[in-house]
Design brief:
Layout (H helix, E strand, L loop, with lengths): L5 H9 L4 E7 L5 E7 L11 E7 L3 H6 L4 E8 L4 E12 L2 H7 L17 E15 L4 H14 L8 E6 L1
Antiparallel strand pairs: 1-2, 1-4, 3-6, 4-5, 5-6, 6-7
Length: 166
């Protein structure tokens, strides 16, 4: 990865993707996923956390009390960029953090603003991330896949796949 800062690289990949899918283990053992909006406004600091506004009464909030392992996945099909983040999830009632992360859009879910009694912050402490980032245009990709189908060989140079340890 050279001299890249792993947090900055991860933020660069996800900052413009509006929704993430957060997968968690349900209390019955099965995996469940829900779309959520990343609340970080300025990237990821030294704390390596992604933040989400979470309803205290949500399925995810209840399940975090028994299993803190979560996966946060991002996809931008238009840019052929995909990110999978393994994280440890916890909740926070820190009012200063709620005020910092609250947005006008969140008022639809939390009408009383940052002091809404149902509002918690989901803190996703990033342990590991993996990404796939294709730089070539669609026509080049299609050509490589067609060539691969004819030759039976795996297509070369279809993009970048890296792992990031934070």
């Amino acid at each position: 990865m050279g001299q890249e800062n792993p947090r900055e690289k991860l933020w660069e990949l996800i900052k413009d993707i509006r929704f993430a899918m957060i997968t968690h283990q349900h209390e019955h053992g099965s995996l469940h996923a829900a779309p959520m909006t990343t609340a970080n406004k300025e990237g990821m600091n030294e704390d390596k956390n992604l933040y989400f506004l979470l309803g205290r009464d949500s399925d995810l909030a209840r399940c975090l009390s028994t299993s803190s392992a979560i996966n946060v996945s991002y996809a931008d099909p238009n840019k052929d960029s995909y990110v999978s983040v393994s994280a440890t999830g916890s909740t926070s009632d820190d009012l200063a953090l709620k005020e910092k992360l609250f947005s006008p859009m969140a008022k639809a879910w939390f009408p009383d603003g940052p002091t809404d009694s149902n509002l918690q912050i989901l803190v996703a402490r990033v342990d590991f991330a993996e990404y796939w980032d294709v730089k070539e245009n669609k026509l080049v990709q299609l050509f490589k896949m067609a060539k691969s189908a004819v030759t039976g060989e795996r297509p070369e140079g279809m993009g970048e796949h890296r792992e990031i340890k934070l």
